[in-house]
Design brief:
The chain is built from 13 helices and 10 strands. The chain is of the alpha+beta class. It has a 5-stranded antiparallel β-sheet. A 3-stranded antiparallel β-sheet has the order 6-8-9, with helices on one face. The longest helix has 22 residues, at 306-327. The structure holds 2-acetamido-2-deoxy-1-O-phosphono-alpha-D-glucopyranose and magnesium ion.
Amino acid sequence: MDMKPTPDLERICAAFACEGAWVSSCPIPSGHINDTYCSEFEAAGRRIKYVNQRINHLVFREPERLMENIERVTRFARERILEAGGDPDREALALVPTRDGESFHRTPEGTYWRMFRYIDGARTYDRVEDLRHVYAASRAFGRFQRMLAGLPGERLHETIPDFHHTRKRFDAFLAAVEHDPLRRAAAVGPEIDFALARERDAGEVVDGLASGLIPERITHNDTKLNNVMIDDRTGEGVCVIDLDTVMPGSVLYDFGDSVRLGAATAVEDERDLSKVGFDLELFDRLAQGYLDAARDFLVPAETARLAFSARLLTLECGVRFLTDHLKGDVYFKIHRDGHNLDRARTQFKMVAEMERRADDMESVVRRYL
Ligand code: GN1
Ligand code: MG
């Protein structure tokens, strides 16, 4: 369970070039990997908010390279938004540099911190509250891909190598089943069998990328609904956040992964599986939103696999949760016993429903192509 001591955020904030005097900090309890806080400052009678994040450097093993990516991507986004007459302070994440002009701060204890400006008047949603948000978030991810197609310079760093290499995710899963360090495998036989029965699908996207059939693009790779800030007033997707895994990939990773949460009838860790399911109407909103932004740059090898990618990426995520459960919860933060197993079960339930609705999903995609 996550039991790290509370960091001294006043001291951490002092390393960054932010305006005013520190007032308070509180945790933002979201995300399974990094630790996020919101800090308030006061300057000339005005309150200013910032977001602090401690980068999990056991997961992101090269924080310097990761931050290089984020600097490039946010700088480029800002330029494009200015060009289009938008508001760069709301539509792109803005890093606050350290007082030494760096993009992150390394504490004497060896933890890595970064700071962003807080985006006001917008929020994220952990579950669907409004169909329009689903459309808006999905379109925002499509636009994000379209924008990053123009990023000049070198290939971005792979912040986590083979992040969506489904085949390698299966290999790690098989190894965890075999080693079974905590003797948990016997109790999860049906879940293990569910995953194994679908192993044949694992190569569909990675093999296509390797052969050149599926183009490599810059993708977000963690396209949960709650990684788009939704404007409180307009309901539009204002800003794509959580840029740690922005790197070379396939659009199928992004579209597929967005369905896990965007078309789910329950939260990712719902224990009552009777509430968990896949909703075709939500999928319809996702498909239209994404294709309204991406339709004209996708190639047939991509569009032909969009519906399939939803099953594949949901399966992959379920396999990752189950692997972590077997290994003793060493990767994803957990907040209760069996948390990763609960998460794996919701993902597998969604996969099973998507398999039943496969033809309907294909029709939805065709409708918006
Ligand atoms: C992790 O930390 P968070 O919630 O943004 C994970 C994603 C998973 C997701 C499952 C770097 O994202 O790949 O899809 O949990 N991020 C990493 O909810 O592993
Ligand atoms: Mg993330």
